[in-house]
What does this fold into?
Amino acid sequence: MEDVISNILMGETIVHKNPLATVTRNCLIIRDQIRGAQAIISFQSIRRIERINTTNIALLAIASGFFTIAAAAYSSHERYEVSAGIGLLGLLFVFGYFSTRRAAILFLLDDQSIETGRGSYREATSIIRAVERMCSDT
It folds into this structure.
């Protein structure tokens, strides 16, 4: 399927490309998350762009529990032996929270909406900036 789209858009200049989408001079190519097919979107049909953020907030709740237990262990007789290990577990859960954050982009078109797959915040932001730049040029 990707080869067919590549052959159709052979003369297009790719402005920006990442796993979420490919931005060319005249259109946007994304993999539709719901249907699993690729979609070619004209910049003129895009009415609004939204970034959908997903996080796993339970990891922060678990980390705060570990930090509370570490503070209680520090104030008891077992100062450094126990509290340092439990505090490190809390830090691991905070790191897990930040490493599992994901974002998708929702393109609201004239008559439908298309959502990209999940990627990092940086990937989503870079696609949004590239599309906004191309929309302002046209």
Notes: The beta strands are 14-17, 21-24, 27-31, 38-42, 46-54, 102-109, 113-115. The two ends are 28 Å apart (CA to CA).
